[in-house]
């Protein structure tokens, strides 16, 4: 689903290993789940599966967490997972330069199998070796 087609009332998620509080804001400018440098966008999704990947693949040793978030401003399709790299927006992934407000947490999410998680980590390592792991921030 493209950002322009997102219906009002859609539930959005943010997967991470960061310790965050309900009522707080996730703001741009910090290291992301995948890179150390600060980014000018915050990233989120309308699918629990994509948020699960975020929680599982995030840097750090803390447990993965999935927060329910609401954008505080306009948002657009995440070009890292849409037409610039993959056709469409299959993961319903978005980004914004405005903060996300944390309005809840998904406590009972189920992660991917250890084999599937290792497969994804291997794919990400391969992308890094090939220099295809850049995050599009334009």
Description:
The strands form two sheets. The protein has a four-stranded antiparallel sheet with strand order 1-4-7-2. Strands 3-6-5 form a three-stranded antiparallel sheet. It has helices at residues 48-57, 114-129; strands at residues 12-16, 25-26, 42-45, 65-71, 76-77, 93-96, 100-106. With 138 residues, it is of the alpha+beta class. It has one domain (3-129): Rifampin ADP-ribosyltransferase domain (ADP-ribosylation fold, Alpha-Beta Barrel), CATH 3.20.170. The longest helix is centred in the last third of the chain and has 16 residues, at 114-129.
Tell me, briefly, the overall form: globular
- Kindly report the average pLDDT value: 86
Radius of gyration: 14 Å
**Broad structural category:** alpha+beta
Sheet having the most strands:
4 strands, antiparallel
Main β-sheet, spatial strand arrangement = 1-4-7-2
Number of strands: 7
CATH class descriptor? Alpha Beta
Number of domains: 1
- State the end-to-end distance: 21 Å
CATH superfamily: Rifampin ADP-ribosyltransferase domain
Q: What share of the residues does DSSP label as strand, in percent? A: 15-25%
CATH architecture: Alpha-Beta Barrel
Low-confidence parts lasting 5 or more residues at pLDDT below 50? none
**Helix and strand pattern:** EEEHEEEEH
Give the proportion of residues in helices: 10-25%
Q: How many helical elements? A: 2
């Amino acid at each position: 689903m493209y950002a322009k087609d997102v219906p009002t009332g859609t539930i959005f998620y943010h997967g991470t290993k960061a310790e965050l509080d309900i009522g707080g804001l996730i703001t741009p400018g910090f290291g992301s789940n995948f890179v150390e440098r600060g980014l000018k966008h915050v990233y989120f999704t309308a699918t629990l599966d994509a948020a699960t990947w975020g929680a599982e693949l995030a840097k750090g040793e803390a447990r993965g967490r999935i927060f329910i978030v609401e954008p505080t401003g306009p948002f657009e399709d995440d070009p890292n997972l849409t037409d610039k790299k993959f056709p469409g927006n299959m993961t319903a992934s978005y980004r914004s330069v405005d903060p996300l407000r944390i309005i809840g947490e998904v406590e009972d999410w189920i992660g991917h199998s250890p084999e599937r998680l290792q497969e994804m980590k291997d794919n990400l390592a391969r992308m890094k070796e090939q220099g295809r792991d850049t995050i599009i921030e334009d």
